[in-house]
TrEMBL record:
Top-rank lineage group of the source organism: Bacteria
InterPro entries for this protein: Bact_solute-bd_prot1, SBP, TAT_signal
Gene3D superfamilies (UniProt xref): Periplasmic binding protein-like II
Pfam families reported in the protein's UniProt record: SBP_bac_1
Source organism of the structure: Kribbella voronezhensis
Keywords: Sugar transport, Transport
Positions in coiled-coil regions: none
Name of this protein: Multiple sugar transport system substrate-binding protein
């Protein structure tokens, strides 16, 4: 489901994912419905009303599926708020009020916990906790408490046209230097070597850090992107951008398979959600690799993104909202499979469901699942919106402007350290 934002670099979902910052309440008033959580006056008897918020997914059928799930629930009247445009700002405003969502999708950041915007869900996940991947639990855990139930897992990788690489005599890249060389070799007067977004590749910031052996934050809450190897990886992103082999100005951005499907590029950074659409056009002429390792000492990287369901602490009906979340995202395995597999491809967060997902057992989908298992990285909930902005500014200056990586890293590091001091003392 495109819009699955990658790492806290700068990408489409980043505009949605970091909802700890609070927008003006007026934006909420204009954007949201009037759910109050009071008993319904429209035939619902004494059932409570629950408002469930989604951003607008791109795949056909997603809204209808969300409405189907809500209608099937009999213990409350669930209304679906399907939000086009700037979901992040609307959600930030909505979480200030008990007239906002009872249940909503987002990605966790520690500000949501410290501001008492979400409630812990340990009680509803306890019996099946071991059936979730460790990374999907970690990205939703703060101070040992689980605050969200993962809905879908969205690996982001590089898909490529096998025939174009074969024609050029190029093997799938294994290092960042290989990637740069391949992109150059594959570029013609009609086709660019790679598409990594119309911004030139800011979505690759996280994978580049991981491929160098670094991280956004270390386990002891320190900046993990400040070493010489990370600087080298950022320099490689600029080298790729400056090589004139990167597609810019595509009619659709990197989250949509239009560029590779229309033969505008030989390789494209995108999520697994696009596999059905790419296979429909390209058939078996589709291969996949992780983001390449920096060098022999590095390791390939996959951003393991996705969406998570939360319960608002401001809901007038927290217990009823938790009960609904448990029903939909823990108990109703048929709906969980439907959501993950029938509207683009996603990995079901439950290990037991992923293991039997027939659509993901073969071909490039199976290859992507394995790459995610081997090299996947999830978000760190301690990474705040302010940190993400500083990191994105750093990437912009390095990748697009050719600024000195050490100087840009230093500026971002100061912001991140200030935020860490604020959060952890």
């Amino acid at each position: 489901m495109p819009a699955h934002l990658p790492s806290p670099g700068m990408s489409r979902r980043d505009l949605l994912k970091r909802t700890g910052g609070l927008a003006a309440l007026a934006a909420f008033a204009a954007a949201c419905g009037g759910n109050t959580g009071r008993p319904s006056d429209s035939g619902g008897g004494n059932k409570v009303n629950l408002s469930q918020w989604y951003h607008q997914y791109g795949e056909t059928g997603t809204k209808e599926a969300a409405l189907k799930y809500a209608k099937a629930y009999t213990d409350a009247n669930v209304s679906v708020q399907w939000t086009p445009g700037d979901y992040g700002s609307k959600l930030s405003s909505g979480l200030l009020s008990n007239k906002g969502p009872d249940v909503f999708e987002s990605q966790l950041n520690i500000g949501m916990v410290k501001s008492n915007q979400v409630v812990a869900l340990d009680d509803i996940i306890a019996d099946v906790k071991d059936d979730f991947q460790p990374g999907d639990l970690a990205t939703n855990t703060v101070d040992g408490k689980v605050y969200g139930i993962r809905m879908i897992v969205d690996p982001q990788v590089i898909y490529y046209r096998k025939s174009l690489l074969d024609k050029a005599g190029i093997k799938p890249p294994e290092t960042m230097d290989d990637l740069i060389a391949a992109a150059k070799e594959l570029t013609t007067n009609k086709v660019k070597g790679i598409f990594v977004g119309n911004d030139g590749g800011l979505a690759l910031g996280g994978p580049a850090v991981w491929s160098s052996g670094g991280s956004y934050l270390t386990d002891d809450h320190k900046p993990g992107f400040t070493g010489e190897r990370a600087a080298q990886a950022f320099s490689k992103l600029h080298e790729l951008y400056a090589s004139k082999s990167v597609l810019l100005g595509s009619p659709t951005d990197w989250t949509d398979p239009g560029a590779i499907n229309q033969n505008l590029c030989a390789m494209q950074w995108i999520g697994m959600w696009a596999v059905p659409g790419m296979q429909k056009v390209l058939g078996d002429d589709l291969g996949v690799i992780p983001f390449p390792k920096l060098d022999a000492q590095g390791k390939p990287a996959v951003y393991s993104g996705g969406w998570t369901q939360f319960v608002s602490a401001k809901s007038p009906n927290v217990d009823a909202a938790k009960k609904f979340v448990k029903w939909l995202w823990i108990d109703k395995q048929d709906f969980q499979e439907d959501w993950s597999l029938n509207y683009g491809f996603h990995i079901p967060p439950r290990k037991s469901l992923a293991a039997k997902a027939a659509k993901l057992q073969n071909g490039v989908a199976a290859d992507t699942v394995k790459l995610n298992a081997d090299y996947g990285h999830t978000d760190n909930p301690a990474w705040t919106p302010k940190m993400g902005t500083a990191f994105g500014d750093m990437l912009t200056n390095i990748i697009r402007k050719g600024a000195d990586p050490a100087g840009e890293i230093s500026k971002a590091e100061k912001t991140v350290n200030a935020e860490l001091s604020r959060l952890f003392g």
